[in-house]
Amino acid sequence: VTVYANPAAGAVAVAQRIAALIRSKQADGEKTVLGLATGVTPIAVYAELIRLHKEEGLSFKNVVTFNLDEYYPMQPGSVQSYVLFMNQNLFDHIDIDRDNIHIPDGTLAEDEIAAFCLNYERQIEELGGLDLQVLGIGRTGHIGFNEPGSAPNSGTRLVTLDDLTRTDAARDFGGKENVPTKAITMGVGTIFKAREIILMAWSKKKAPIIKKAVEGEISGDVPATFLQLSDNVEFILDEPAASEL
Ligand code: GLP
After folding, report:
1. Domain range list for the chain
2. CA distances from 65 to 116, 132, 165, 182, 212 (A)
3. Which residues form the Glucosamine/galactosamine-6-phosphate isomerase domain (predicted)?
4. Residue 70 in contact with ligand 1 by CB distance below 6 A
């Protein structure tokens, strides 16, 4: 666990780690495979990566990305879609090749989802796995959309969203009744295979779930507790989020 005085300091530190990884892989002629997250938490990281691209020449030409999750169903043009979020907060401002961007597809027919999810896993594996996965955390303890009840070895799949998650998303959708009941998410097992995992949390609102995630009993009731089983996880927090540890 590393605690920063404020979210901006934590976000800059994470962006610099990502930039260093990209540069060292580039120097070796290798691709960097990043697992990315949505939500308010990583926005400042993406802003710093954009700044590093524009001001310090950081290139994303050799970067391949896999986003954690997407609501289901969801059209990519909808204001709540994670496709739009990623375009607005990162991809539209950097030199990434569009073919290297992967986000779970919220437009699939239900009977296409299983094959899509297997292919998502296969694409990650064929690239040699995720070098680094960035995570936020939901108040249910979800990582990606792995809600309570998720298995530690779960893969990419269609899941049902927790009631609390839908309550927290209500504002984005203009009412809870408009929040999709399902999502497609990478699994806990998918996340676990990343060589490095960084979970970020800012603000007092996250303090109780951070306490459970870092110090609580390991259990599917709080999927983020599974991260305690990995040696490759770092929690990057601001002081309020760490205040109950
Ligand atoms: C959503 C995303 C998660 C994210 C969580 C927290 O549920 N699917 O990946 O970690 O929100 O969001 P925020 O960072 O806005 O608190």
Report:
1. 6-202+216-235
2. 16, 10, 25, 23, 29
3. 8-228
4. no
